[in-house]
Amino acid sequence: MEGFVAEANRASWNLIAPRREGVPIERLRAGGVVLEDFEQRLAGDVSGRRVVHLACSYGDEVLSWANLGARATGVDISDVAIADARERAAAAGIDADFRRADMLDPPGDLTDLDLIYLSWGAICWVPDLAAFATTVAARLRPGGSVLLCDHHPAWEVLSVREQGRLAVVGDYFGRDRPSTDHDDAKLPQGARGEPDAPGFSTFVWPVSDVVMALIRAGLHLDEFREAPEPALYAGLGPAAGALPAYYVVKASKPSG
């Protein structure tokens, strides 16, 4: 079942990948980064470090880690996205590696990593949270960390359907039950508002499940916070700032 879902999602990602655009390549060529300041602060100095971005899409964050001095690799399930990422790296003159693989089965040589990074729409594609956490923990070196900055599952299940009013459009406790009925605002860029948007299967994992999966995999929780982002609840008005929109988790593998 998991393999079927992954392959169906890969086909859908391949269809929309050409519609997805990153920042102007000149910005990256000039040494710019698209990472949030707090992401850079939590990651620390990555100079010379092995950084892998799982579910990297067209690779702008990977190129940003490389611009910060990391030995950066991006992994994504979409063949088209990886080809685009390689083209962007070449156009920017940035040395970065890109691999086509499922995040639950990354290439075997990606081990002893200093940082595994996931961002802004990654966990919703994970069908087995325990397997994901175990894989991440196994690929880190002692002292290495995973940094996850993602949409809050509350945002995944709440939608502004009319001015100033919310509707429940999903199940916060859906966990490993795939959802294929998506509110348009929750679709990936490239599918949103498109009449021919392909189908996707996603998963809603409560934040507590994500945190505990990492802890049960043997990692130490270093940072956990939730935050609003009113733009993600466009149309709700001032109340948008009272709702969680994203969360941040950093967890490290014990050194001894």
From TrEMBL:
GO terms for molecular function: methyltransferase activity. The keyword Kinase does not apply. Transmembrane segments: none annotated. Keywords: Methyltransferase, Transferase. InterPro entries: Methyltransf_25, SAM-dependent_MTases_sf. Gene3D superfamilies: Vaccinia Virus protein VP39. It holds the Pfam family Methyltransf_25. Residues 51-144 form the Methyltransferase domain. GO terms for biological process: methylation. This is SAM-dependent methyltransferase.
